[in-house]
Design goal:
The protein contains seven helices and eight strands. The protein is an alpha+beta fold. The protein has two domains: 93 residues, no CATH class; 131 residues. A five-stranded mixed β-sheet has the order 4-5-6-7-8. Strands 1-3-2 form a three-stranded antiparallel β-sheet, with no helix packed on it. Strand 6 and strand 7 form a beta hairpin. The radius of gyration is 30 Å and the shape is flat.
């Protein structure tokens, strides 16, 4: 009986040794550039007992989180010249998974090298549209430069000359005038600001026989982050020579 037990143990140990020797891994060596450590929005905030001065590189963590979800585990991190880091990762080799990933890599490399097949009429139309938008953007931007306290920090424009349709998107940073008591703002004041933006479009398009669609955003910068605190849709259209305007205030979720 003892010999039988001993024989079984030998078989089990031998099987484990064989399994361990049969393990296969694949490796990845990557660098995400120089680490930038910050105390802002740290993962360590979720854990009690860790020093509140702990710093993390959220950018590198984000990329490593993605690799971790695909089975990659860090083996070593080495400092390289000028502060970059060489990160070596490994994971158990899975032939099917690796084959599928290599196919995806190959497709992306081919697309990047050759690009896609181009339909030239559509490309010409897109280029003309780009030129018209740039022309409209320059003219409208020049008009905005002449307005006091109404200069957007972001501006995008679209024009459809065939139908006389114009679209503009404006983003204003209202931090200076609307951030109150250090970390507060009043929605009523933001809504009044957005409503007042109607006059911006009226001033430029009033004499034009065109339909206008404006999307306006108001943002406040606080604590190193930008917060959209209000938005509005502004419609303008001409009917029998009379301009009609409508402003719809939207609450930012």
């Amino acid at each position: 009986m003892k010999k039988c037990i001993f024989f079984v143990v030998i078989i089990l140990v031998g099987s484990l040794v064989y399994a361990a020797s049969a393990d296969q891994y694949e490796y990845m060596v990557v660098s995400f550039g120089t680490p930038y450590f910050s105390e802002f929005r740290r993962k360590t905030m979720a854990y009690e007992g860790i020093s509140t001065t702990a710093q993390e590189d959220s950018f590198i963590e984000y990329n490593l989180d993605i690799l971790g979800r695909h089975g990659w585990e860090i083996v070593s991190i080495l400092e390289t010249i000028e502060g970059d880091q060489q990160i070596t990762l490994k994971r158990p080799y899975d032939e099917k998974r690796t084959t599928e990933e290599n196919k995806e890599i190959g497709t992306k490399v081919i697309d990047e090298y050759y690009g896609s097949l181009i339909e030239l009429d559509a490309a010409d139309k897109a280029e003309r549209q780009k030129e018209e938008d740039a022309e409209f953007s320059a003219a409208f931007g020049k008009y905005l430069d002449g307005l006091a306290n109404k200069k957007p920090v972001e501006l995008s424009c679209y024009v459809d000359k065939s139908s006389g349709y114009y679209s503009v998107t404006l983003t204003f940073d209202i931090t200076k005038d609307y951030l109150l008591n250090g970390n507060g703002y009043r929605k009523s004041q933001v809504d009044a600001f957005l409503k007042d933006c109607e006059s911006i479009l009226q001033g430029y398009f009033f004499e034009k026989n065109a339909s206008v669609f404006g999307q306006v955003y108001a943002k406040i910068t606080y604590g190193g982050k930008e917060f959209r605190v209000g938005s509005a849709y502004i419609f303008g259209w001409s009917d029998l020579g009379k301009w009609e305007w409508k402003t719809t205030i939207n609450e930012i979720k």
